[in-house]
Amino acid sequence: MSPTITAFAKSPDGGKGLARDMRVRWALEEIGQPYDVRLVTFPELKQPEHRARHPFGQIPTFEDNGLTLFESGSIILHLAETHKGLLPQNADARARAISWMFASVSTVEPPILELQTARFAEGDKPWTPERLPLIFDRIRQRLGELATHLGDADWLDDAFSAGDLMMVHVLLRVAPSGLLNEFPTLLAYTTRAQSRPAYQRAFAAQLAVATAQYSPT
Amino acid sequence: MSPTITAFAKSPDGGKGLARDMRVRWALEEIGQPYDVRLVTFPELKQPEHRARHPFGQIPTFEDNGLTLFESGSIILHLAETHKGLLPQNADARARAISWMFASVSTVEPPILELQTARFAEGDKPWTPERLPLIFDRIRQRLGELATHLGDADWLDDAFSAGDLMMVHVLLRVAPSGLLNEFPTLLAYTTRAQSRPAYQRAFAAQLAVATAQYSPT
């Protein structure tokens, strides 16, 4: 039996790979693990059946052999612990890669989420146009620090890891704002990651959901 | 040699245990691991010496035997993997506890950070009084979902774990707003965690830093 993940039946980004199932699909492709996808509609996200998988009514989730997990970070860490290819063998390098996994969601993503909240939940508020530059500056601060750390290296630590996978996906979520273009180092970093065959297979798989959604048949 | 963590030389909360070194201190106390603390001033946080430990110039960090980690989540996970007492032995229960670790920083904390940002970085803006109720509602949504999951259980999964430790500390950061009082289940949950001797030792240790800071000598 293959594991089953959940994804939006109709992703708000229309298949641009920005929803968080993309991270898990990519990790599954990196380790060569086939998987099934259960598509969940917005109303279904908040129903008890899905809440039993994800207490906060979100995607992605992961089900395998009686185990149910939520949060992309913990799903990817679980895959990394049970398969080769996502974390270094060396114990110290492995712990450092996990620092980057947490940094992606805990330090870099929060101002990016704030931008999404400003645009969607507060998009009609009179203060939003004046607030956006403040949020941009908070995102820039994190991107600048990340670019400084990366320098001219290919990856955050010695080799590609789940830390890069998660960080790159967080960065791609801010790309539509144009902010990533201000940091050539980070643009090259995300492009490098996107050229990985596993990324491309995962991207195609999530795009196929959107394409089927909008097909005329 | 004991590991060394970093903490604020002068914590903005004046010793209320809300800074993120508290999470790591608590985890170290749970496993009975003595530790040293390097206090870092605000200017020092942004200096190269500290940036080498923490690329984003924050606390806490963790140094042990040549290994340097940042991010409270990854430090606590590292402690949990190398000592008993913070994660269940059963593999599935362990993976679920790690889901809660990620949920604490990735799903529950972001709206709480948004509240802090509104109060401090945007405290002087004319829109802030009108925005605060919107942010409160976003926090309430997460707290409500968490309270529903918890129900009348003592802990998020079968037994106390690093997932509870991190979630409780995130919740305590919103307690000063009064929002936690709206959720008796969560108030009982945080109180239950705060009664653990390890929590109390960690709290006393961080308070001692603030007390020494403000002592007249």
Overview of the molecule:
Two copies of one chain form a homodimer. Chain A is of the alpha+beta class. The first copy, chain A, has two domains: 4-85 and 198-214, Glutaredoxin (3-Layer(aba) Sandwich); 91-196, Glutathione S-transferase Yfyf (Class Pi), Chain A, domain 2. Chain A has helices spanning 21-30, 42-45, 48-51, 72-82, 91-120, 128-150, 162-174, 184-194, 197-214, and strands at residues 4-8, 36-40, 61-64, 67-70. Chain A is globular, with a radius of gyration of 17 Å. The model of chain A has no long low-confidence stretch (mean pLDDT 96). Chains A and B meet through β4, α4, α5 and α6 of A and β4, α4, α5 and α6 of B. Chains A, B: Pfam families: GST_N. Chains A, B: One of its GO terms (molecular function) is transferase activity. Chains A, B: Residues 90-217 form the GST C-terminal domain.
SSE topology:
2 copies of one chain form a homodimer.
Chain A: E1 4-8, H1 21-30, E2 36-40, H2 42-45, H3 48-51, E3 61-64, E4 67-70, H4 72-82, H5 91-120, H6 128-150, H7 162-174, H8 184-194, H9 197-214
Parallel strand pairs in A: 1-2
Antiparallel strand pairs in A: 1-3, 3-4
